[in-house]
Amino acid sequence: MDLEFDQQHVWHPYTSTINPLPCYPVESANGVYLTLEDGRKLIDGMSSWWSTIHGYNHPALNQAAKNQIDKMSHVMFGGITHEPAVELCRKLIAITPEPLQHVFLADSGSVAVEVSLKMALQYWHAKGQPRPKFLTVRHGYHGDTFAAMSVTDPDNSMHSLYKGFLPEHIFAESSERGFYEEWCESDITDFKEKLNNNKEQLAAVIIEPIVQGAGGMRIYHPMYLKRIRELCDEHDVLLIADEIATGFGRTGKMFACEHAGISPDIMCVGKALTGGYMTLSATLATKHVADTVCSGEAACFMHGPTFMGNPLACAVGNASLEILMQGNWQQQVLSIEQQLSELLPEIGQLDCVKAVRWLGAIGVVELYEPVNMAEIQKSFVDAGVWIRPFGKLIYIMPPFIITPQELSCLTVAIMRSLKPQ
Ligand code: PMP
Question: pTM, whole model, 2 decimals?
Answer without folding.
Answer: 0.98
